[in-house]
Amino acid sequence: MGNEAIIHVVDDDLAVRQSLSFLLASDGLPVRLHQSASAFLATVEDGLTGCILTDVRMPGIDGIEFLRRLKARGFTMPVIVMTGHADVPLAVEAMKQGAIDFIEKPFNDDLLLAAVRIGLDRHQRETQHQAQSVEIAGRLKALSEREKQVLDRLVAGKANKVIAFELDISPRTVEIYRANVMTKMRAGSLSELVRFALLVENGSETTARP
Length: 210
Prior knowledge:
Keywords: DNA-binding, Phosphoprotein, Transcription, Transcription regulation, Two-component regulatory system. This is LuxR family two component transcriptional regulator. One of its GO terms (molecular function) is DNA binding. The protein is an alpha/beta fold. It is built from nine helices and five strands. Strands 2-1-3-4-5 form a five-stranded parallel beta sheet, sandwiched between helices. Strand 1, helix 1 and strand 2 (about 30-35) form a beta-alpha-beta unit.
């Protein structure tokens, strides 16, 4: 299915899987069914776009352990957990483990579809954000050491004269380096240049988090 967004339904109850498959398909969403978390982990590779809709109580690997294993393997697809009324504390724990939402059974069809759509939109934005960060990081690597020094000071909000003094070069030379940085980073304005630099910096911090 290429990069088409797929809704992965993970539930040990066949009737629930079939019901959700019909509901999601009727809303135009591609669906793939999994009878257990183990089945999902054994057959699905990360890097796909979509959303995971899983029961929180399942034999073998339950919803909480499923989330832990997804995180350990680097899965980035958003996860929505389904729970019975008595399992709400468990669903809250699932959200602490990375789930983006939980839906109580018996669920409202419109509410579930809305949650799935929100999950898909969120994943699309995050994927685009990550791709942009990688692209801008590539531009950053093309800068010379001096250009990087000028960029760092521009991001810090320093004026050309201050940068010239700190680097022991003329203000005119700073202007030349600044123009080179703008061209190489493909920034149309100083504000866009700063945004690009912060995007890469924040992306690096997110990657470095455990």
